[in-house]
Amino acid sequence: MTKLHRLSQRLQFPFEINNKIFKLISEIDALSREFQITEKLSPQTIKRLTKSVLVTSTGSSNRIEGNKLSNEEVESLYSHMNIKKFKTRDEQEVAGYLEILSMVFESYPDINFSEGVILQLHEMMLKHVEKDIGHRGKYKFGPNRVEARDYKGNLVKVIFNPTEPALTPIEMRALIDWAKQAFKEKAIHPLLIIANFIFEFLAIHPFQDGNGRTSRVLTNLLLLKNGYLFTPFVSHESLIESKKVEYYKVLAKTQQTWKTKHEDMSAWILFFLEILKKQVSKAIELSHTDNIEIHLSDIQNKVWNIILANNDISRQEIQKKTGLSDSTIKQVINKLIHMKKIERIGETRSVKYRVL
Q: How far is CA 141 from CA 65, 116, 132, 134, 198, in A?
């Protein structure tokens, strides 16, 4: 009988835990199949939503690691990416994350899951951070244990000792090989493979800096590559940030049994799946929402807001206020009538439009 790989062995759970895990997986998969947002929304709206998630995810992922920029500041930076010089480390970190996550959302089908790609993602993420130039895209060269320090910077205690630098390339290659083989064989559910991979990646802590952020980029990439297409529409990172204390507690608890004879992954797996269930549930809410602004392009929203602000208004008046062509306004009005959001009042030249 072939001995199970350590990373597969620890995915065998007691009966009760196993039931909880597969109930969550079944719920996530059912909701993921129900998710039909790309068929319901216009390309412009999808682009706007994805931009919003890019900003939110970037802000959250970096704040989890101590970055101070708000979502508003991240959005401002995103709007001036091509002309702005990133002066502070916070800005440099945010710029890299924005670029890399945007690439993952747009090009995930063409991104292969490999050691080279992981190193490249890390290099891209830190490309604007001047002080990190020496270790971009390279495994760690020195110890990077997780420590607790007081306000003066004095060491209080060592929270976790990750893999030694000399062993990091070996352990990373073993982890990547296991994940690739597991995805290929399909004997383990992909969500369990992803959760297991992310935990082991964080335990190895392969880079001198940027491990948490890289792990969250990889989470987005692996979810998308495995068909979880709700990923770019609700921020995974924001949900993690909202549970930041629990996130670190669960990681610390799971790390206590790391590489022992009885590794207990249950707390981390359940936490990870609960986050995904909340993420896909929010995506379903979004696709079913009656919020009309979600379902309109920027130009359509412009016309809608003018009608909303004026009880009875004609096409000519809308044209004066928006500067849009009459044919464009006519198309938007017809759509709003079809959506049963406005009604036509009067006839011929005296026609006006009113919110229902």
A: 21, 18, 13, 10, 21
List all residues 6 or more positions away from 36 whose beta carbon is below 8 Å from its beta carbon. Answer: 287
Same domain assignment for residues 206 and 255: yes
Q: DSSP assignment, residue 226?
A: T
Q: Is the pLDDT reported for residue 1 higher than 60?
A: no
Which DSSP state fits 260? Answer: S
Secondary structure in 3-state letters for 110-155: HCCCCHHHHHHHHHHHCCCCHHHCCCCCCCCCCCCCEEEECCCCCE
| Spatial contact of 140 and 206, defined as CB atoms under 8 Å apart | yes
Split into its structural domains, the chain has a count of: 2
Least confident range of 92-101, 225-234, 298-307: 298-307
Other Cβ atoms within 10 Å of 192 Cβ, number: 20
CA dist 355 and 344 (Å) reads: 9
Name the token pair of 237. 């990172």
What pTM was computed for the model? 0.82
CA separation for the pair 356, 337 (Å, rounded): 9
Domain coverage including residue 345: 292-355
